[in-house]
Amino acid sequence: MAIAKAERLMNLALCLLGTRRPLSKRELRESIEAYVEAFGPGRGVAFGPGRGASSGPGKGSAGDDSFSRMFERDKDDLRELGLVIETVENLDGEVGYLARRDSNRLPPITLDAEEAAALGLAAKVWQQARLAGAASGALQKLRAAGLPEDVDPYEAHGALEPRIPVHEAAFEPLMLACRDRRRVIFDYRKATAARPEARHVEPWALECWRGHWYLAGWDRDRGAERVFRLSRITGRVRSRGSGFTAPVPDVVTVRETVATWAGEVADRSALIRLRSGAGYPLRAKAIKVRELGDGWDELEIPYGHGLDAWLVEFGPDVVVLEPAELRADVVDRLRAVAKG
Question: How far apart are CA 30 and CA 48, in angstroms?
Answer without folding.
Answer: 13
